[in-house]
Amino acid sequence: MKNILILGGYGNSGKQVVELLLKFTDCNIIIAGRSLEKSKMLSDKLNILFEGNRVFFKSLDAENIDMLTIAFKKIDMVIVCSSTLLYYKNIINTAIEAGIDYFDINISKEKNDYLFSKENIIKDKRLCFITDGGFHPGVPGALVKYASTKYDYIEMANVYGLMKINWKNYSFSKETILEFVKEFQNFNTLTYKNHNWKKLSYSESEKVDFGEDYGKQKFYPMHLDEMNDLPEKLNTLNETGFYVSGFNWFVDYFILPLAVILLKIFGKFALNPVSKMFVFGLKHFSKPPYNIILKLKSEGLKNGRKCFFEMNLINKDAYQMTAIPVAAAIKQYLVRDENTGVWYQSNFVEPLQFIKDMELFGMKIEESNC
Length: 370
What we know:
By secondary structure, the chain is α/β, with parallel strands linked by helices. The protein is 40% helix and 26% strand.
């Protein structure tokens, strides 16, 4: 029985990760965050809902290394579900020193570069560090590997993320929005086509049909590091990539272009005003029908003939869409004997079991026949 501390465990995504782990695993959970009151309130509630008194609470500030050092004693893994990118080095280094495993759902190139710079130390200490948890990044690379099992030779596999979200129903911390906007500065359009990686322009967007509710939607290339090794592992693949839809007309055609200009000119000083504009645009201009869909489109050869395989992962709740893949990855972590190293979530998981568990945990999954 593992002891897992979830930093930000009472937050929007963290809370759902906690509930899924309690429902589908036997691990003990420590809910941690700056608010002791929120940690205690949720742990008391969950100990009533789930048998075994497996939920505990703790006050924890990622800025305070002494608090982290004490908190990381007698636990097996820390899962970072909070907006703590300012202090990612504190968490990573303290976890290494404590000899515990690590998992995060934070999107940050800077954090990932630092994490992989510690890979040799992490391997030497036989630790397991998993990053880029959630659904994008976190799932597209695994979907491509899953699709490869449908063919004798896979040739093309692209994943498209449709984000039609009722943003009025969601509240964001200032830190979460700042982290999100900051990543626009690292936006990369690298895509694998004709056996080569190349950067696409926004004019090379793709239109994909999402049925009668949404029709043909425009998708923009967005590089995910988890897909870097796909052409090497699937050497018959000549095209793969991840594409993401726009938010809404106001954000796509007004706020995002303005944000790029402001961030380029003013750098970090533009983060606050850009963040406020971004939230305003999301909450006031997003229209129904609402849904989040990851669509895989692939083709290849099976029994000597051309074959096509498609699948959709669907969930209306953005936080549940994040939590389900995380819990499915943790479920594999709990039963595997050898996890040593630094992993992207998508590369850590065995894709067939990953898909089965996500469906078990509440993800709607549709597949076509190849």
